[in-house]
Amino acid sequence: MARVGAVIVGVAVLAAVFGPWLAPYDPAAQELALRLEGPTGLHWFGLDELGRDIFARILSGARISLLVGLVVVGVSSTIGILLGSVAGYVGGRIDEVISRAIDILLAFPGLLLAIAMVAVLGPSLTNVVLALSLIGWVGYARLVRGQVLRSREFDFVQAARALGATTPRILARHIIPTTLPAVSVQATLGMGGAILAEAALSFLGLGVQPPTPSWGTMLNYGRGHLLDAPHLTVFPGLAIAILVLGFNFLGDGLRDALDPATRGRRT
Amino acid sequence: MLRYLARRLLLTIPVLLGVVTLVFSLIHFIPGDPAQAMLGETAAQEDVDALRQRLGLDRPLLEQYGSYVRELLRGDLGTSLRTSQSVTEAIVERLPATLELAAAAMLVSIGFSIPLGIVAAVRRGTVVDHAATTLALLGISIPNFWLGPLLALVFAVELGWLPVSGRGTVAHLVLPAISLGAALAAILARMTRASLLEELREPYVQAARARGASRGRAVMRHAFRNSLIPVVTLVGLQFGAVLTGAIITETIFAWPGIGRLLIQSIGFRDYPLVQGCILFIAVTYVGMNLLTDLIYGVLDPRIRYE
After folding, report:
1. Domains in chain B: how many in total?
2. Which numeric CATH code is attached to A2-14+45-262?
3. What CA–CA distance (Å, rounded) separates A83 from A72?
């Protein structure tokens, strides 16, 4: 399954990078006379309400989805690793403050807080990325804190401390590397989560704004044409589901490969 | 048990305070003048000033916070800018619809996932198991904002079996409940399978078999009962996801619940109503998590003594 996931993600990355050259049409070009036309030999996924080629827009949307996923996962995992490792290693008051912040943010269902933030900041791609990153770090921080609490007792960490290594050095050279396998699994699954969250926000009209092609926004517009042009709903949704499935397959496979305890017994 | 209960309740207080503070501060994150943002760029200055005064935005921040908390404690969530209705009343009016949808979605997901998880665990490694786990993974990956319209397309538009939107009869509930419950069903099926597999390895299950219990009895009477502990916990913890999912499902199916109210109020920049809905959903989520922990404490005595 992990291989299937890798292939799906690989194809999506290729589509995102080479999309503009692969797409048979400009994603913004309009053929109003053919608006809402279903799939044909010329327009594989049909045309939308403004006569734009849906296949070209899906290729272009892959770029937005992957970009959101990468930035959100990059920012939130960096913040999460830093705060989680400091909380776990230093302990005391700092741990208290960080842990309470984690508790409070975890008290909100993730998407709700993102909706709240985008509602006040205004709908845009930047605000979606900002909101998802500010919420996403919590999961990484909690994971890393737990890992650090365990690994700070390892002999090699004690040895580094005895040799006079500074706290930042111990964290950077010895502690944080031990957390990376678990973080990489979470990051892979987090890519799927971020892509899904961006699509959900865009679907609700709170995310990427037209004319930028986002899969969620395309689905939102498709809703109004469920009766006369269902292809507007089918293809963007299929793209989201397949890409998220790809990241989930990959994340599950990575977890099995990195954690000997779960190897051979899928959960 | 009482000590566990008291400790768990005490731990909830700072979390609730944090949630209230965060929701209060939302309005202050609005870029520029919040009153102007609510009324729009073309609003007259005197209207903006009047709104600022009405919302208390002209007072010092701490004073605003103090009065926000005091009003909350009296059950007053403010007044809708658009309809002048009390936010608490607006939420209470929509609450039955959201609860009905959430309960139906949970029922659908539990009814589907537990048998699926059991079959996958008992027939581990077979085609049935692979099919069940793939189905579960599909359920997690398919977004409800796609599944909802697809279900509507097939069962309402093409087949005409069920209504496409609105609330009223049981038929109206079917598509929204399936659409909202599918992801939870997938997660629960995976957890049931994993948890039952763990229990099936335990010596007491082998002992039951050795004493002559049939395979079915060993699974259902012994292993399955114990495997339910993490599943019950997950059901409670996932309630928040169901509430958030309801925001999307209610929007798709024009279901008159709190989620739809939230999205509509965002569209109208009715921030007191936005704050009220968010606070209500978050506090319900915290309450459900607390309840789940308490039930977990009752089900598994080891937790209480940790």
Report:
1. 2
2. 1.10.3720.10
3. 16
Q: Are residues B161 and B16 in the same domain?
A: no
Amino acid at B47: D
Q: What is the ipTM of this complex?
A: 0.86
A96 pLDDT higher than 70: yes
Q: What is the pLDDT of residue B205?
A: 85
Rounded Cα distance, A251 and A248, in Å: 5
Instruction: Specify whether the CB–CB gap between A241 and B141 falls below 8 A.
Output: yes
State the best of A112, A135, A215, A240 to mutate against chain B, taking most chain B CBs within 10 Å. A112
Q: Express each pLDDT in B269-301 by its tens digit.
A: 899 999 999 999 999 999 988 888 888 777 776
Residues B162 and B207 in one domain: yes
Nearest residue in A to B193, CA atom? A267
Distance CA B142, CA B295 (A): 31
Same domain for B141 and B240, yes or no, is: yes
Letter for the amino acid at A204?
L
Same domain, B57 and B107: no
Contacting residues of A for B244, CB less than 8 Å apart: 109-112
Residues 112-151 in A contacting B (C-alpha not used; CB under 8 Å): 112, 115-117, 119-122
B27 touches chain A (CB under 8 A): yes
Q: Which residues of B touch A103 (CB under 8 A)?
A: 14-15, 18
Q: Is residue B237 part of a domain?
A: yes
